[in-house]
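INTERNAL TRANSFER SHEET
From: sequence group
To: structure group
Subject: Enoyl-CoA hydratase family protein

Please process the attached sequence and return the structure record in the designated field. Keep the field labels unchanged so the import script can parse them.
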Amino acid sequence: MGINRHSESTGIAVVTVDYPPVNAIPTDGWFAIADEVREAGRDQKTKVVVLRAENRGFNAGVDIKEIQSKPGHQALIDANHGCFDAFAAVYDCPVPVIAAVQGFCLGGGIGLVGNADVVIASDDATFGLPEVDRGALGAATHLSRLVPQHLMRALFFTASTITAQQLHHHGSVYQVVPRAELDAAALKVAENIAAKDGRVIRAAKRALNGIDTQDVHRSYRYEQGFTFELNLAGVADEIRAKFDDDLAARKSGE
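Return from structure group:
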């Protein structure tokens, strides 16, 4: 359980997220993702990184139970710093990052995928930001890299999800494949990139980031400010408590 990294073949580093059962990532996990992606990029032999996950879904966002179990706001601050670090590590990685996404990709998962260079998804994958239903904000910066502006707003305000097939239509998901073929499909694209000259690939990554129209770091940090504001005002605690009550009620009725 946790984050691990291995070399699949020459030039390809694979970072795997494994926090069963749903990959709700604790604070330490976000920092670990950042560390492993950065370490892979520092290795001059690496030409491409594949970010993948075990378990039912790619990512269920932050571990809300961890935040609620600790008094005060430090746990929230730490979680937000961890997310910022992980998202930044993917975006700033000196080589391309391929996200291989299965099942659900929610909350912080959108931050990772939105900052990746290539997205491969299984045919059961769905993407969304349930933040407004949890009394928080964030990662609209990254969702806006996956869908057009007005669709992003509709998805954000309604806390709705969108399918891999829909994202493929918008061009942000490169390929949609059966779940059993997801790893192989991601590695095939990785092998294509790894066959190139690593010096050119690293220069290309810097060039593409340099011409990006959005400063993803500043934009996401701006969003985080409103999350802190909602928590300081007590709004987030109130909404999360209601969410927990509703969840408990649904489980007792099953």
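Handover comment: The chain is about 50% helix and 15% strand. The beta strands are 2-9, 12-18, 48-53, 97-101, 104-106, 118-122, 126-128, 161-163, 175-177.
Transfer complete.
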